Amino acid sequence: MKVLVTGATGLLGSHIVERLVAQGYQVRALARKTSDVGHLRSTGVEIVFSDIEDRNSLPPALKGISIVFHAAARVTPGWGSWQQFEATIVRGTENLLRASADAGVWRFLQVSSGDIYGEACCKGTPARESTPCQIAFKPDNYYQCAKLQAEKLAFDYHRQERLEVSAIRPGWVYGPRDRLLADRIARQLEMPIVVWPGKANPRIPLLFASDVADCAIVVATSEKTVGQVYNVGPPYEVRLRDFATTMARALGRPEPKVSFPYLMAYAACAVMEAWSRLRRVNEMPYLTCSGLRLLNSEMLLDVSKVRKELGWEPKVSVDEGVSLYVEWRRRQKKG
Asked: What pLDDT, on a 0 to 100 scale, did the predictor assign at position 7?
């Protein structure tokens, strides 16, 4: 069976590629011409250069494809204009859905996000798949708003019987090729003086990327999941500062015991953002106000549905996952 993975050079997409290859699928990876495809080439998969924002570039990539794993997105929460998020996440998904339907694709797996619940997953009760999303349309939430719209578009195609669609809503994902969460925590811990912004230690739905990839494959290939959406997170409690402490130990660095006052950290982030905008830098700053708020907010997901219906369980513990990430990070620095 031949499958297509979008976002194949990103964190989750690259792990979906690896797990599909390990399970014997014929994998075609979609990548932009400007993307670093070094890792993809090492997997031996077929690479097609295309762009979901360019509808006309998609038909050749979808020829002969049975299942689409759509993991491509603009993953810069709190950084970028609505037009940028809409172009990649909303219109890009719509382009891919239309091209997939036209190509006769059998199944479409939409990689959504637990972030789409907004305030609903921060109120002490874990959000279930049926929980109404509560997202205010503002710059901080452009990513979440776009992901929610994209998921709705995907299920519109399902209701119209143009595609068989399923979706997953992962929590926080980390692992090799992580350019966001793990990278920023590691960079903070590698500084000469290790400090932590604020005193909060929120609960987070943290999972190693290969576990989420395995779940994506199960959802995309099971008949019982057609038309369904699944939260993906750990069945046990993970706290952010505990995760940072585990990473500090793996890095051989001091634990982040000293807290930097939250308001001062927020001011520092605001200065970084202003300086980046002044220089018209497209890349998201190392720290942003939105990212700082995330580090001090809980995100609670009810993952009972995916466990009961599909028997899925994460296999990589936090200790093991952090060790694997740190080993990969060290190899990158040596290389």
From this structure: 97
pTM: 0.95
CA distances to 100, 227, 228, 310 from 223, rounded to whole Å, are: 19, 10, 10, 11
Q: Judge contact between 138 and 118, C-beta under 8 A.
A: no
Q: Rounded to an integer, what distance in angstroms lies between the CA atom of residue 30 and that of residue 125?
A: 38
**Cα separation, 268 vs 288, whole angstroms:** 9
> Dihedral through CA 175, CA 246, CA 118, CA 15, nearest 10?
10
Within 10 angstroms of residue 271's Cβ, the number of other Cβ atoms is 12
Please give the pLDDT value at position 111.
98
> Quick one: 203 exposed, middle or buried, by C-beta within 10 A (0-12, 13-18, 19+)?
middle
- Report yes or no: 171 and 238 within 8 Å, Cβ to Cβ: no
Domain 2-177+205-235+301-319 carries which CATH code? 3.40.50.720
Q: In angstroms, rounded to a whole number, what is the distance separating the alpha carbons of residues 94 and 151? A: 10
Give the pLDDT confidence of 31-52 residue by residue, as tens digits.
999 999 999 999 999 999 999 9
